[in-house]
Amino acid sequence: MAVNFKHDGGFFAPMRFEAQIEDCEVEGEIPADIRGTFYRSAADRRFPPLFANDTPYNSDGAIDMFRIYDGNVDFRSRYVRTARYDAERKAHKALFGLYRNPLTSDPSVRNVSHNTANTTPIVHGGRLFCMKEESPPTAVNPHTLETIGEWDFDGAMKATSFTAHPKQDPVTGEMIAFAYEAKGLCSDDLAVFIFDREGKLTKEMWFKTPIVSMMHDMVITDKHIILPTTAMVTSKERLDRGELHWAYDEDAPTYVAIIPRDGDASDIRWFKGSTDQHMVVHTTNARTEGNKIIMDAPVAGGNFHPYFPKLDGSFSDPADYVPTLRRWTFDLEADNDTWEEEILFDGIKVTTFVRMDDRYLTKPFRYSFMLMNDPSLPVAEAFADTLAVRVSNAIYRFDHDTGKIDKFYAGDSHGMSEPQFIPRSANAPEGDGYIIAAVNNFREMKSEVVIVDAMDFAAGAIARIKMPFRLHMQVHGYWASAEHLPF
Ligand code: V55
Ligand code: FE
């Protein structure tokens, strides 16, 4: 989420209903070569939170799907029926306390899973998972969106948590994931899991981390797994004091773990970076070239999560810590534990909501697509103070070969969410396809889903799916082609 949280206003207000629409209204034409399902995970709090300083990351999960075929679109939206959702529904009020601090929850639910399943939808082995990094994945029926329940991969996955950003290897079909605080709250246990194409656990490795910190995303190459830490730290003492799980430690080192996919736990190498490299929240891609590992990601030098305080309780201004696109090169032969950093695209200020043509994960790639804040784009007078219109108003296509940037802009009262890339066909060249993204139109207080030709941003949206109501606030999305998930 790129904007500040309001429990009571605008697109952040709880949607409170579940919906199904056949043959959505479409302006323009949906190309016949788009066939698949666009899923979006959302954070939507059913009840006002127990604590005013809580974070929207602690909101109930919802899952939306847009099934696209023959130029038609069918829509469904459901809350994820987590144990937590059911408990609060029965009580008709919030029972769970602050983000990842069960000591602040109502005693009646201290032993109930606090999983909100609100972050990322992923289809693997024919299953749809709604992921939340503090808990195991939640399996949801990919066609009806009915909740199946927390998923432990047939008893094989023993961690108490599981990243919301596993990576799917486009060559082997494997899913690689990790878990931090993997043996319970504040534990310094880190686990890596490799699942085959069907979702069977084929390998796990367990480690200790030098710092217990928020580890939100990861990267893989054909040979390595790369796990960055951040300076967002926690401790049992914080939880005992009744505080939010995370605080920002300005002085913490940045660590990056590099693990060979075909090695074992003793092969892990920890690299150590500077405090200007603190915040890797999402990643773009990585590859292994000989002894070198080249990783691209938006990185910030400080805390840009507005809800999490510094260790002393004060807050920094997120505007001071806007990420830039950086390339980190690790040399596995070097006899030190540092790496080289190159700032890309002249240090342009970006968000962390970046996606690419996932068929090129682990390989050299040319394009990335990012949700952007572009103050040069027009904002209608009436919405000049509306953060979501001002700060997430564009999608940029970065051409990493030429340095060229193409912009898509949805309108002067429109806030956008993270884009997904849809290949035109399974064998189309990199970047040849479409961008799909949900858009909130504040003028109408309704949502749209735009489809853009990824090779022709200048042409604007070629289709707009017009929703008769506003959608939930999206966190992340996923495109499942009909070959990957038949329907
Ligand atoms: C993030 C989002 C989360 C979370 C932890 O953007 C980190 C980062 C939507 O929930 O729980
Ligand atoms: Fe994320």
Structural commentary:
- The longest helix is centred in the first third of the chain and has 9 residues, at 83-91.
- Strands 2, 28, 29, 30, 31 and 32 form a six-stranded antiparallel β-sheet that branches. Strands 1-5-4-3-33 form a five-stranded antiparallel β-sheet, with no helix packed on it.
- With 487 residues, the chain is mostly beta strands.
- It has helices at residues 83-91, 236-240, 387-391; strands at 19-21, 25-28, 36-43, 61-69, 72-79, 120-124, 127-131, 138-140, 147-150, 167-168, 175-180, 189-195, 201-208, 219-220, 224-228, 232-233, 247-248, 254-260, 269-273, 285-289, 292-299, 324-331, 340-343, 354-356, 367-372, 394-399, 405-409, 414-416, 420-423, 433-441, 446-453, 461-466, 474-481.
- The radius of gyration is 21 Å and the shape is globular.
- The structure holds 4-hydroxy-3-methoxybenzaldehyde (V55) and fe (iii) ion (FE).
- 4-hydroxy-3-methoxybenzaldehyde (V55) binds at residues 43, 57, 118-119, 133, 216, 281, 475.
- Fe (iii) ion is lined by residues 119, 164-165, 216, 282, 476.
Main beta sheet: 6 strands, antiparallel
Shape: globular
End-to-end separation in angstroms reads: 30 Å
Rg over CA atoms, rounded to whole Å, is 21 Å
Low-confidence stretches: 1-5
How is the quaternary structure best described? single chain
- Strand segment tally: 33
Q: What's the CATH topology name of the domain at 152-346?
A: Lipocalin
How large is the count of helical segments? 3
What is the CATH class name of the domain at 152-346? Mainly Beta
- The helix content, as a percent range, equals under 10%
Strand proportion: 35-45%
CATH architecture classification of the domain at 152-346: Beta Barrel
Bound ligands: 4-hydroxy-3-methoxybenzaldehyde, fe (iii) ion
**SSE class:** mainly beta
Average pLDDT over all residues: 96
